[in-house]
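Try it yourself: sequence plus magnesium ion, in.
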Amino acid sequence: MTPPATRLGLGDPAREARLLARIIETISAGLDLEEILRGIAALITETTQTDVCFVYLLDEAGERLVLRGATPPFHQMAGQVELKMGEGVSGWVAAHGRPAVITEDKLSDQRYKHIPALGREDFTSLASVPILGKPHRLVGVLNVHTRQRREFTDADVQLLGWMAGLMAGGIENARLHRMLAQREEAMERFAERIVLAQETERRRLAGEIHDGISQRVVSLSFHLSAAADAVRTAPDVAAREIEEAQLLAEAALDETRFAIAGLHPPVLDDLGLAASLESLARSIPRLEVHAEVRPCELPAHVATAVYRIAQEALQNVVKHAGARTARLRLLAHGDTITLEVEDDGQGFAAAGHPDQTSQAGPSGYGLPGMRERAELLGGTLEVKSYPGQGTLLRLRFPATAERRSTFSLRVSPE
Ligand SMILES: Nc1ncnc2c1ncn2[C@@H]1O[C@H](COP(=O)(O)OP(=O)(O)OP(=O)(O)O)[C@@H](O)[C@H]1O
Ligand SMILES: [Mg+2]
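Structure, out:
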């Protein structure tokens, strides 16, 4: 039996005002993103008389839609369902920036993709609208489903779009709040790590000075004393001692340079980031590194962070990948800077994601350290690795300081 189409669109000012008040109440309930999305999903199903609502948000890179909120019991799946741009009805809506309605027989709709985790076989009709922030920025996609067949009217879809638009600002605020909280946590972790790193670095320097440089200076001093004793009686012995002392002075100088180079990459100051990365690429032993780097103007601390990430990524290639070649790229697209280090080595199973793309990998200090640096730049670090198919590490961050604070929210529907 087909229920009559329900017209839910706006038009009644009193109803509109009540709805507005409830939307404002929902999005001002707090700054917890999950809670806001749960509230939104509940309000939407109630208002549109639908059975279930899913809220997908675009990820930071603007590439995937991630389920972030839903009505029970699907709220438990938050964070566990992802769609690429263009994939499924939601992906289609996100990619086209237009609503979609399927009244029945969704399986025969080419845009539809069954997601087993959501078990939506029970649902017959659906309406999906983009969540658009200002200025026309895609924040995510909102879907409603009904068990019984339902003809979603233009007015229904308009109402959904209107509500989604009103909620976009609240969602963005909550995301911004979460991003700032994460950034603060990253700062704290980074500060702890800096203290630890300083201690390690001090021990390393002390070791190098004690075992290397000071030993050489002691021997050098012996040779000079021997030369001083022999200078009148045996000038040829004195000459040999001075020669020895000279070699030791050179070795001590080399070791001093090495110790200093470990503290700060001196090439960065002299050559700038692009040339330093090229020089880094050439300096990696037993690995052919193809460098493609564009000169870009970045503040010194940002350039150092990028250089350190490239250095650790290449060290990982040497240590773990067993690769023949690697590619190092530094690109600027508009205001976004991208650093990529890719190798053709054995790859690894980055945990936590079915397609082996992950936020986390096996334990070590390198990857977490790189991720923290990326977060401090207001950017993202992506590790794509498949056993047997090499590894791609991609850092993306905004070039300008103002945009570094809002980068995670930057998404574009195009
Ligand atoms: N390019 C790569 N190819 C293959 N495996 C990699 C690559 N990069 C990282 N890995 C894997 O990820 C793990 C974690 O890397 P990470 O840099 O965090 O730690 P690590 O290199 O083992 O130690 P550390 O960097 O603290 O000296 C490595 O042990 C390795 O198993
Ligand atoms: Mg490492």
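One thing you can check immediately is this: The longest strand covers residues 137-146.
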